[in-house]
Amino acid sequence: MKSANLQSEQLPSVSVVTPGGPSPRADRTGRGLMALNAVLTLGAFAGGVRIIVSAADDRLVVEVWRTFAYVVFAGMWALIAAWPRRLPGVWELVLFHKLAVTVYYFAIGDVPEAPLAARIDLWLVSTTALAYALCRGWYGWRTLTSSPGSSGQPVSTAG
After folding, report:
1. What is the pTM of this model?
2. Which of 8, 45, 57, 126 qualifies as a cystine partner to 70, CB 3.0-4.6 A?
3. What is the 3-state secondary structure (H, E, C) of the chain?
């Protein structure tokens, strides 16, 4: 079993056990949640494209901005699913954004689109936070260290 504890993250589809890292089951579950969020967000992108086609001129810029943001978030969730402990800051940026908009949507109440957006983003922040805990996403910060003689430049130490 010693070799299982020393595996490194080489392939995104492989659950990895690192010393002090998550169990393989927790890792698979967290990665699966992030992959699911990526796929669901691509579905939102497809819906956004349909909205853009029929958007009024006064809504077009906002709808294009929102629609292409879906691709960015889908990409971030896909990256997190592939390398959950190699991306310092990405988990936290996603969590910050999703938590901030969720709180805002709930605060503004019954404004058009807010109740549905609040429920959707509550799902996203909840599953991302759960996956962060399951995958130990904070380990991404461990990949940045200063090596002797590197003038303080970050270097990746993850396998």
Report:
1. 0.79
2. 45
3. CHHHHCCCCCCCCCCCCCCCCCCHHHHHHHHHHHHHHHHHHHHHHHHHHHHHHHCCHHHHHHHHHHHHHHHHHHHHHHHHHHCCCCCCCHHHHHHHHHHHHHHHHHHHCCCCCHHHHHHHHHHHHHHHHHHHHHHCHHHHHHHEEECCCCCCCEEECCC
